[in-house]
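Researcher: Structure for this, please.
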Amino acid sequence: MKNIAILSISFLLLTGCLKKSENKQVEVVVNDTTTIKTDPLPSWNEGKTKAAIIDYINDVTNKESANFIPELDRIATFDNDGTLWSEQPACFQLFFAIDRIKTMAPEHPEWKNTQPFKAVLEDDMKTLIASGEKRLMKLVMTTHAGMTTDEFEQIVTDWLKTASHPRFDKPFNELVYQPMLELLDYLRANNFKTFIVSGGGIEFMRPWVEDVYGILKDQVVGSSIATEFDYNNGNPVIKRLPELDFIDDKTGKPVGINRFIGRKPVFAAGNSDGDLQMMQWTDSNTYKSFQLYLHHTDADREWAYDRESHIGQFNKGLDEALEKEWTIIDMKNDWKTIYPFQKE
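Model: Predicted structure, token format:
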């Protein structure tokens, strides 16, 4: 759809070919005499992508290696939309905002004749997309501000319990990638600290990331709106205000990493041009680093898109990844399964 990128970006505002080697496995000691070898990435097909990840982690965690990285510096950053969960046909935070407008509509009868609310209530996506950035930002602020942080967290939590994706008819937080869940666990098992660095809203992600990804809510970097403290007659609250505070996208990602994490990543994963600067920042680390791009190539099990996509465009990032030989996941060929609820 023409100009849908403007709509998606508005909500986001709120919010390597390595040497192939034999796949090494993790040893788990059951007792003094029995050792079971388990595959750390069972949902990944054997091949250069899986081998590259395992080779890297084995190398930098080996104290005898010249590339050894101390545990304090094992920082791994992951984009969220399109990297840890799906982002089509639009970012999931947009679905949240649309549902919020419909929920709030009975208290605002004037919205029936006021854009862009009228378009939302009539499911008129064409008009909504064409309404312009100023009106779209009004939609964002209406649905994401004007309440306390605790109230917003509860709203997001309740929405995830009832809302379902239009294609898969599953809760949005079930459309997470099983292979990436395994990768997060594998990194943490090797004493990497995993962070989300997303263009999405930080307080939209915090309510559910611990349960879904095992990433602590204080290890989330995202876009945010302004807030203020209110003592509230002895019942302190933090109010969400209708104005932008920080945009964690593109060049904002390295800035956010520096501001909120304070250490340069050695491992970064993303899927679009919006993640390119995070990749470049990670690539500049004096430690051996790993840049992992997810290429959406599976139209049957998920979606196939890249250079011309209305969301999650992968154009400049793809060129640079190929030029610098960063590792690129071919979703169709590298992953046995996409979602936890799918069978191989």
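Researcher: Any notable elements?
Model: Residues 116 and 131 are 6 Å apart (CA to CA). Confidence is low (pLDDT under 50) at residues 1-6, 12-30.
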